[in-house]
């Protein structure tokens, strides 16, 4: 069983195509691509934490049918666009406004919104969030798991951490010293 994170799918939201420059010709095309992306990486036994803004527009029955087609055991961290009807859908294993959990020995703080500070941030805890659609510069140990910056699919923690570690090292030098790598952040 693997654990995945996502946010800001905005299923059924026509405005998402323009607001977030999503490359889809219609709402139906966008929703189908999001569903395919989800099910391509998430297996039936996997855990998925959706960090808010699941759907905007579809009636509860349509949202419930969609949620049933999406693989995994699903948790909803409420976003600003999640209605009471969305939170009450039978496909959610849990719903909350905030969560703390440990995945692969890594403590996490989950919320729809990005934090400037969070519990135990100086002790290595990581903040995962949505809401900003990839438009907010992250702080160290903070990741936007929304679909817009993550290829329109859920992402595993290992993938987020690997992307951070693979960045090119920063070099600094003075006229009298040879360049050397800065220590990892």
UniProtKB/TrEMBL annotation:
UniProt lineage: Bacteria, Pseudomonadati, Pseudomonadota, Alphaproteobacteria, Acetobacterales
Descriptive protein name: Metallophosphoesterase
Entry-linked InterPro entries: Metallo-depent_PP-like
